[in-house]
Amino acid sequence: MIAPKPEKLAPARPQAFSVPKLRGQRNEDAWQWSHKGVGALSDGASVSFDSASWARILVRHFARSPRVDATWIASALAEFATLHERESLPWMQQAAFDRGSFASLLGLQRCDKGQVKILAIGDSIAVLCDADRVVATFPYELPEQFDERPRLLSTNPAENAFLADCDLAADFGVQWDLGALDRPALLCVTDALGHWIIAHRDEEPSPIAALRTIASRRDFARFVAAEREAGRLRRDDTTLLAHWDC
Question: What residues form DSSP beta bridges with 33?
Answer without folding.
Answer: 39
